[in-house]
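Thread title: Can someone regenerate the structure for this chain?

I was given the following input by a collaborator and told the matching structure tokens would be attached. They weren't. Posting the sequence so someone can regenerate them.
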Amino acid sequence: MSAAREQQLQLNMTERGKHLGVALWAWLRPAASQCLYDRTLFTLAITLLVFGFVMVTSASLPTADKLTGQPFYFAIRHTIYVCAGLVVLLVSLAVPTQLWQKHSGKLLLIGLALLLVVLVVGHSVNGAQRWIKVGPITIQVAELAKLFFYIYMASYLDRREVELREATKGFIKPMALLFLASVLLLMQPDFGTVAVLSATTIAMLFLAGAKLWQFFSVFITCVLALILLIVIEPYRMQRLLTFLEPEKDPFGAGYQLMQSLIAFGQGHLSGVGLGNSIQKLQYLPEAHTDFIMSVVAEELGFLGVMAVIALVLMMVVRALIIGRRCLMVQKRYGGYLAYGIGVWFSIQAFVNIGVASGALPTKGLTLPLVSYGGTSLLVSSLAVGLLLRIDHERRMTGRKVTPRGGAE
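Best answer:
Regenerated them for you:
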């Protein structure tokens, strides 16, 4: 091939790349009149789901081979969860938000009832009774209870916005419900979910206009309660001490954190390569679930970790933007629910990554849309579907609908 011909082919490929980039950007950010849902949010969610599938497959192979003799056991199950999550996302996209709001009280009662039922017939793992087994299916009820609680809170804030801002009782009512849910969660025990639920609920109240003195009083109360809960439970105190000095017991209480830190240390800038993690070879417990970011750090390095953080952060920002835009057109229920989901995702991701990197004490919380776990993945997908539906209804506000077969 002549040099001129080769140069022409390279120019053609460059032009095609530019056209593809422009087309992709136009698809992600179309004109408002051309798009009925947030394509950027949808793309971010699918990207995280695909990335999670790849990393769960990579991280779970050694564990699955040891436990079941089938290396792809967890990968196959995660594939089923991802497909089911996509179905849930699409179905929730078709359900009007008015229906969720109408039945928000019933959903709250269902969530609280599930938290009660799990204490009676729940399946216990490592001393925690958080799961209900229905045949081959294991349901972590706290994940459902969290979302149902946010759905109810958004409805409450829509109905009682003025009362919340002007009367103390408007602030006390949701706090009483939060206290009840927290007690049920602590009986499992599930301290991590209590922290996420409390922080998200307080943030929703603050964004809805709760007074600063109420916000700070609850914040101080939560900090004091946190200290008390740590002091009265020896295992929580042990976790805190282990978090502060894991090297003092590297083969005991500090083992998991030390192995996670080794994974982060081995990753450096670009990682050891996808599939080449050493820590997942029976060294790091829960490598494909709560500590999936440790494997990401080792295999993909600092760049991989930052890419995941950027994707999650962009999704959270999109959720907050959707919430703000809904409030601007007086769609308060959708706005507050979008705020709640965005804050929830941000706090849970912050805790998961903080635990894996040693910045926070060990807590069993998944990374939304990424970690292995059927209930977590389905609930996160449902939340994304709710966000897309909320944004769709906001975009349809004031838009003239064209009758089928007629002109606009």
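Strands lie at 123-125, 128-134, 137-140.
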